[in-house]
């Protein structure tokens, strides 16, 4: 009995062995999460997740930016100052860019919101009979974007399109390349018409699943200096483009990318252990040259880590966010005790 107990007592250790980050001293700011529940229990769960990640893999999740409209003051209070919030529109194809009046901007600023989240995912994922403005560059939005630009409202996240490429599952993604590129060109038209709009495009603008897409993304970043990207959810597709092209992209555009997870922390759907594993997968991809993650990748083939230089890692994890996002983020990090330049 003693031998049997000894064997089984070791199983959890081997089954859940985890890789620790190479950079425990570098804080992470997750600029893309979702949580619509303002209850004290839910917010306190974020602190539990943070503690679990730090204990298990030595990674410091310093702050989150919640892109699902919530009470920003409660979020800050109940997370110990670690969560900023955006106001949001999730049905612009149906109702338009709803928040664009100057008095609304002033009101949201007083309430503590850091910016505006606009979900312009494909209109065909919504009720077709309710869709009025299928593309983000619809002329009906031009007044709204002009006012957002004029009043320097930070677009904390703009979701454009869905992945288009040779996928083996999630067939509801953007399977039609013509439709996909119509959505992407809509993004460029907005950037062209409103060059002073400060914007973070979610999920790498979904332009990171093929080499040709990455080439176009290079063009966008070179042409529109106020356009930046979060890289949330892209880890599932990182072995589709060529390795050297993707690594070169991360290094060349190291000042334009922000790390993020797109996690929603729904009760009974994500445990602290699974979130920890998700964060671990991200830093293995960014920090090491490990070959891993076949179960994570969309095509079920192994992922090879990019092994990025430390200075690039620092920018992805927090320095770019501090520079790109409103001053409120930098102030919050300083209040938490981080030595921010």
What best-fitting shape do the alpha-carbon axes yield? globular
Strand count, sense and closure of the main sheet?
6 strands, parallel
Query: Structural class, please?
Result: alpha/beta
Number of strands: 11
Order of helices and strands: HEHEHEEHHEHEHEHEHEHEEHH
* Spans of at least 5 consecutive residues with low confidence: 1-16
Give the end-to-end Cα distance, rounded to a whole number of Å: 59 Å
Determine the mean pLDDT.
90
Instruction: Strand order, main sheet: write it out.
Output: 4-5-6-7-8-9
Tell me the fraction of residues in β-strands, as a range: 5-15%
The percentage helix is: 40-55%
Number of H- or I-type helical stretches: 12
Radius of gyration, in angstroms, nearest whole number: 20 Å
Short description:
With 341 residues, this protein is an alpha/beta fold.
Task: Report what the structure shows.
It is built from twelve helices and eleven strands. With 341 residues, the chain is of the alpha/beta class. The strands form three sheets. A six-stranded parallel β-sheet has the order 4-5-6-7-8-9. The protein has a three-stranded parallel β-sheet with strand order 1-2-3. α9 links the parallel β8 (227-230) and β9. It starts with a helix and ends in a 6-residue tail after the last helix. Mean pLDDT is 90; it is low at 1-16.
């Amino acid at each position: 009995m003693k031998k049997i107990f000894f064997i089984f007592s070791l199983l959890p250790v081997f089954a859940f062995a985890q890789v620790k980050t190479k950079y425990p001293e570098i804080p992470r700011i997750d600029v893309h999460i979702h949580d619509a529940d303002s209850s004290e229990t839910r917010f306190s769960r974020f602190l539990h997740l943070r503690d679990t990640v730090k204990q298990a893999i030595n990674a410091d999740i310093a702050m989150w930016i919640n892109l699902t409209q919530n009470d920003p003051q409660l979020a800050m209070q109940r997370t110990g100052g670690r969560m900023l919030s955006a106001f949001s529109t999730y049905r612009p194809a149906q109702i338009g860019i709803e928040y664009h009046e100057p008095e609304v901007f002033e009101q949201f600023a007083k309430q503590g919101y850091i910016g505006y989240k606009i979900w312009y995912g494909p209109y065909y994922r919504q009720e077709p009979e309710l869709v009025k403005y299928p593309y983000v560059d619809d002329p009906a939005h031009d007044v709204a974007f002009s006012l957002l630009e004029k009043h320097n409202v930070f677009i904390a996240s703009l979701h454009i399109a869905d992945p288009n490429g040779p996928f083996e599952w999630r067939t509801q993604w953007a399977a039609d390349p013509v439709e996909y590129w119509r959505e992407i060109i809509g993004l460029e038209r907005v950037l062209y018409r409103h060059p002073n709009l400060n914007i973070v495009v979610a999920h790498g603008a979904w332009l990171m699943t093929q080499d040709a897409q990455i080439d176009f993304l290079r063009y966008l970043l070179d042409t529109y200096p106020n356009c930046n990207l979060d890289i949330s959810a892209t880890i599932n597709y990182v072995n589709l483009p060529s390795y050297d092209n993707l690594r070169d992209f991360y290094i060349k555009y190291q000042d334009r990318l922000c790390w993020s997870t797109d996690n929603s922390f729904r009760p009974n759907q994500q445990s602290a252990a699974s979130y920890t594993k998700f964060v671990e997968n991200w830093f293995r991809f960014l920090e090491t040259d490990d070959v891993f993650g076949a179960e994570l990748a969309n095509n079920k083939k192994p992922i090879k880590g990019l092994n990025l230089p430390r200075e690039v890692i620092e920018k992805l994890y927090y320095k770019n966010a501090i520079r790109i996002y409103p001053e409120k983020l930098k102030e919050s990090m300083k209040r938490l005790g981080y030595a921010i330049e």
